[in-house]
Amino acid sequence: MAKKDLDGSKKDLEKRLRKLAIENKQLKIALERANAIACYDSLTGVYTRRELMEHGEYFMKLLNGRYIEGNMRTVRPHMTELAVCFIDLNDLKKINNTQGHHSGDEALASFAQCIKESIRDTDVLGRYGGDEFVVLFPNQSLVDARKIVRKMRASIGRTVTGRNGIPLSASFGVASTSEGHTTLSDLMAIADGRMYRDKDRQKKGRAA
């Protein structure tokens, strides 16, 4: 093969390799974006329900000593208990109906930010659905989790949203494995029930 042909083949190969490198970089960026979409709620920036539940199951496995990778028990963080808090933004439907859905979205974003600023870096916050959020408190006692709830309630109560400055409020329910709950589903069901009882108490208080 002539030297001219070899040089041409080499240049063609280099061109193809550069193109492949660009395509691989674009694919990596696309995969990272897809992963971010799957993991984080686009409106509030907190974890999606699926990601939240995966964290919860992981914590429960650690707590119960069942986290095993392959046939080898991994070196794992020390877990003593897990507290779960259900949080519901009150009157979101009213905000949407009177101020518009844009104000409702603003309320949800502000609401999530208040929660994020009240919890630890090791805690996990996710949007469970609609106006409901859940916080997982690993290695946090029920008493301490309730203290954080009081902090969140006060922070949310100082927050206003919408063009007319609507004050926000929330309902809370907390449960802990220290109460004897051994599965994530039981823990969340108890916390959810307590949240609705808190909501009922607030409605009765306003009616009175």
UniProtKB/TrEMBL annotation:
Coiled coil is among the record's keywords: yes
What domain of life is recorded for the organism?
Bacteria
Recite the UniProt keywords alphabetically: Coiled coil
Question: What SMART domains does UniProt report for this protein, alphabetically?
Answer: GGDEF
Molecular function in Gene Ontology: diguanylate cyclase activity
Which residues, by range, are in coiled-coil regions?
A: 3-37
Q: Which is an annotated Pfam family here?
A: GGDEF
GGDEF domain location: 80-208
Query: Gene3D superfamilies this protein is in?
Result: 3.30.70.270
PANTHER family associated with the record:
DIGUANYLATE CYCLASE DGCM-RELATED, REGULATORY COMPONENTS OF SENSORY TRANSDUCTION SYSTEM
What protein name does the entry list? GGDEF domain-containing protein
Q: Which organism is it from?
A: Candidatus Yonathbacteria bacterium RIFCSPHIGHO2_01_FULL_51_10
